[in-house]
Structure formats: C-alpha cells, structure tokens
Amino acid sequence: MAAEVLLERGVAVDIYDAMPSLGRKFLMAGKSGLNLTHSEPAAAFLQRFGDARERLEPALSAFDAAAIRAWAAGLGIETFIGSSGRVFPVNFKAAPLLRSWLRRLRERGARIHVRHKWHGWSADGALVFATPRGEVRQSADATVLALGGGSWPKLGSDAAWVGILSAVGVQVAPLKPANCGFDVPWSTIFRERFSGEPVKAVRLSHRERSLVGEFVVTDNGIEGGAVYALSAVLRDRIEVDGGTTLILDLSPDRSEARLAADLAGPRGSRSVTTHLKRQAGLVGVKAGLLRECLDASAFADPARLAAGIKALPLRLTAARPLEEAISSAGGIAFAMLDDRFMLRTRPGLFCAGEMLDWEAPTGGYLFSACFATGRAAGLGAADWLAARSNTLAAAPSIGINPTALG
Ligand SMILES: Cc1cc2nc3c(=O)[nH]c(=O)nc-3n(C[C@H](O)[C@H](O)[C@H](O)COP(=O)(O)OP(=O)(O)OC[C@H]3O[C@@H](n4cnc5c(N)ncnc54)[C@H](O)[C@@H]3O)c2cc1C
C-alpha cells in the first residue's frame, strides 16, 4: 500500500522482503476466505480498535471499507458483503488479488527484492540486508517498515525487528497473542473423543461480555471465531489472575426453567445420555462438555443439570502462544510516531501495519488497519520527501573558500 501511493507520487520504490515471495500471510488469510474489511457503519467500525482508535481514525477514515472495495475492484477483484457484514472477494481467494496487485506495482516501476532480510543500519545509515548472496547495503531517502507482528512467524513475520528498533530507543509494547486460542486442561478421555469437534450455537460469557457463536475443541483447549472475539479480555484477565473462567450456555434458545422442567420428565430405563438428548437436545461434544465440567452428582438433579447447561464454567489456564495467534497485540508505541506514521526520533523512517501498537478482532479489521496505515505511511513519506527536496532546493549552497582556509 505504501509502495503504491509512493509510486503514484513519482517516487522510485524498492520493496524488500525476507521471504522468497511476498504476501504469504495475505495468501494464508485466503484459505479462510480473505475477509478484506467490514461494512458496518463507521462509528461501530472504529470502535473495534479500542484504545488505538483515536490514532488510527484519520488513516481508517481516509481509506475506509468502501475505498478498500473500490481498490480491489480496480485490481479486477469484485467483492461482496456477507450476511455478517464482512466483506470478501466473490471468489474468496487471495492469490488472484495478490497477483494482480504485484503485477500493477511492477508495471508502475516497483523493484522487488525477495530473500532480503533487513537487520539494521550500517554506520553510514544504509539499510543492511542478509541475502543468500551475502550482506547487501542500500541507502534510501525514506524507508517504510511494514514487518508485521509476531504471529505465524513461518510466514515471515518473526518480529526480529523488535530487538533492532528497541536497540535504537524505539519504545515497543510487548507483542502478545490476539485473536488466539486458550489452554484448557482437558481430561485424556475428552481430548481423545472430541478434539477437532466444533461446538455450535453456544453462548460464551466472560464478565460483562457475552456472545453467541461457535468454537472448536483442540488438543490443548479451545479456538475459533467466538473465542477470538473475547480473546483480548480473556488474555488480559489470565495475565493478571493466572487463569480465568469462561461461562458457556450450551442451550441459548431454552430457558433454565424450561430445561429443568424437561429434564425432570421421567427417565425410565433410558441412559443419562439418551435422556439428555431427548429432553434437552444435547448430544456429542456438548454432552461431553457437560460431563467434563460438571460434577457427576449434578446429573441426578434436573435443576442443577439445567443450571449447568445454562452456565457451564470452563477454566482457561493460558492463552495459546503468539506463534499460533491470528494477530498480535502490542508493537511500536504511537507516542513514538507523528501523524504521518514517521518515527519522531528517526526522520525519514515510517512504520505501518501490525507492527504498530493496536489490536482488533477478526472481521476484516486487521487488513483494514494494515491497508490504511500502509497508505498513510506511504503518503507521509511522499510528503516528507517532497518537503525535504524543497528545503534542499531552497537552501543556499555552502562552499569552502580555499583562500580563507589557507
Ligand atoms: C491464518 C490467518 C488468517 C488471517 N485472516 C485474516 C482475514 O481474513 N482478514 C483480516 O483482516 N486479517 C486476517 N489475518 C491477519 C492479517 O493477515 C494480518 O493482520 C496482516 O497480514 C498484517 O499485515 P502486515 O503487512 O502488517 O504484516 P505481514 O502480513 O505479516 O507482512 C510482514 C512482511 O514483512 C516481512 N518481514 C518481516 N521481518 C522482516 C525483515 N526483518 N526483513 C525483511 N522482511 C521482513 C515478512 O516476510 C512479511 O512478508 C489473518 C492472519 C492469519 C495468521
């Protein structure tokens, strides 16, 4: 995005990436449909960025969901708004969009250098890259860093930049998992039976937050859409208390009173499993969760069983590691950046994307902020370069008079 706007402004651009090809995480996102942005009204959209909203708002407003859709259309990729308001390419694929985007960048003059891993500056200020052919140094009038957060490092975003920038005094909030799964100490029997099973139409509550959605049981715990939506508060609570309890309502459409009455019906010779299925509609993984988290004695008491179905406590012991998360929280502190996304302490060095200190839920908000800050940083760099060349052109040339020196 930064390259695109710099090229539009007539600046020569070189793009460097550590990986053998560009946009690997973008392509990975295509595997789950490539949710490019969200169509909800601007006020609700901006709210998703929490504390970072104020700093991101100008960039997000300048390149909003409509602009993202128009941009994709300009690359030959039509988008549509799904029932949840999320925006996807009609073919749900990332590869055609990335191909078209890179083709256009190349046609406009971008030079792309892959297998170039940036690892700092030389004494004279040149960017230093490790490449298969050895070290390469490159001076630049302005630099835009868009090195990603720390999730899925095998796709390139290994967060090695944190050490490099911290060493030159850039304040970086520790990277943490965002939109992540959580550890639950499942019994062996539950894990073996239900790992990989989706739990659908369930209400998840944590303190004052609550939503209906679905998640997946994993070997270590839980992950998936509804869990990601609560993950920031769950993560922060675990950080403080060393663990937290998520409350599950396994039957959001039935009241506790109705469930208690249904379960009080005669069981006869039927097994508890069949009784639960017939009277409460609970089978498979939902019935398994009840057994896993409820005291065995509750199954003989319809009122306690109904209460358990409506408010099943699931103990979470840790957030899954950053490497597994969909995105990162933390990053370069906004206080270090001016309104153009330039580091105040390093004129000419701009930063964009997930490496900045913001987080947002899934729903297209992540790409939206990456696109928007990329554009803003690119425009900032273009303006800064233009201002600098005007200053240089206007400055009187400084010469040394040899006779004066002699
Ligand atoms: C499985 C998955 C699915 C996702 N799906 C969605 C989705 O549908 N919608 C959505 O909005 N978001 C989604 N995301 C999140 C989204 O992909 C990221 O937020 C976004 O890609 C971040 O963009 P970025 O440009 O900041 O960083 P990245 O996309 O991580 O790109 C950073 C680039 O910098 C390069 N790099 C890093 N360090 C160096 C270095 N030292 N030298 C040279 N190059 C370096 C990397 O190789 C990489 O190419 C998904 C993430 C994952 C993991």
Characterization of the model:
The protein has 15 helices and 19 strands. It has 406 residues and is an alpha+beta fold. The protein has helices at 2-8, 24-30, 42-47, 53-62, 65-74, 95-107, 161-167, 188-194, 225-241, 256-264, 272-280, 284-293, 302-310, 365-394, 402-405, and strands spanning 14-16, 37-38, 79-81, 86-89, 111-113, 117-121, 127-131, 134-138, 143-145, 172-178, 182-183, 198-206, 209-217, 221-223, 244-249, 312-316, 318-319, 327-332, 349-351. It has two domains: 2-177 and 327-389, FAD/NAD(P)-binding domain (3-Layer(bba) Sandwich); 182-319, no CATH class. The longest helix is centred in the C-terminal third of the chain and has 30 residues, at 365-394. Bound molecules: flavin-adenine dinucleotide. Flavin-adenine dinucleotide is lined by residues 16-19, 24-26, 28-29, 32, 34-35, 117-118, 146-148, 151-152, 156-158, 160-161, 326-327, 353-355, 364, 366-367, 370.
